[in-house]
Structure formats: C-alpha cells, structure tokens
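*** Residues and shapes ***
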Amino acid sequence: MVSMAISMGSISSNEDPGLVASLAPNTTLLGSNPKEVALVDQWISFFDTEIDSLLMYLEHLISRGLFNKSYEADIRGRLTRPLETVETHLARHALLVGGRLSLADISAATVLRTAYSFLLGKAERAKYPHTFRYYESVINQPTIKDILSGGQPVESAEEYVPLAQAPSEEKRKV
C-alpha cells in the first residue's frame, strides 16, 4: 500500500522524509520514544512554517526584482522571533531533540542552508552563534555530510538593489 501511495504521488513532501526514515530498521531519526517523536514532528513543522515559508517568499521577491520595501522589511522582521526561539533552544542543547541526530535536525539544516545562502550574513550569524554552531555541526555529521554540505554562507545579507531609473526626458522646447 505504501509503495502504491508513493508511486501515485499521494504522499506530501513533508511526509516523504518521515516515511523513508521509518523504513530503516532500528532508526532513531524519528525519535526513540513517543515524546521525542512528537518533538521531531513539532520542530520540522516549526522550521517549515515559521522560517522556510518566509525565506522562500523573501528569496522570490529579491530574485524576481519584485521589490516592495515594506514587505521585505516585514518579512525580515518576522524571521527574528523564530530565529531567536531556535537560538534560545540551542544555547542549552546540542541538537533539537535528544542527544542523537534526528530528522528534525536534518530538516532544520536544509532550511538554515537556505537562510545562510542569501539572508544570514556574517553580521546576522553573530546574532545567532548557537544556531550557526548547530548548523555546522549537523551538516558535518559523517553519515550525511556528502548530502547536506555544499555552499558557503554569504558574507553579507542579500538585499534588493533597485535598477537605476532612466533619466526623465527633458521636455523639448518648440
């Protein structure tokens, strides 16, 4: 039944990693007890809804040249609270759930990779040192390094630069 659902494409992208992780024997990627399983799901959902969705929207605005100063400022501002939440948690924990790498960590690292690729430059990384340490730790795990590594963090946050406006034509005197 599961293979039929996959081949028919009826499983959403959020469920695919969990499904694959659950197929491995003796895996702890999804947590080792019911509480950890719930926390893994919670962190994945948090990163997807609170950070990744805003990153995608902001990246779209910047890359497409659809600049709206108030929207961009609003989105950047709305990212502050979830990033502070992650920073506070990681100040006390090496990983998101328990003492072993989980699917939440892998999912979070993919979202953070996007953030570090265009939005969180050196100055922003200094505001969230525990989050950056965590990210570096996760992407350098031997079992997943080849999959998650790649791309260096940007030096400075990418910002929209409006095209130079064409000079207005002077009215011809008749």
Notes: The longest helix spans residues 34-64. The chain has eight helices and no strands. Residues 29-148 form a domain with the Glutathione S-transferase Yfyf (Class Pi); Chain A, domain 2 fold (CATH 1.20.1050.10).
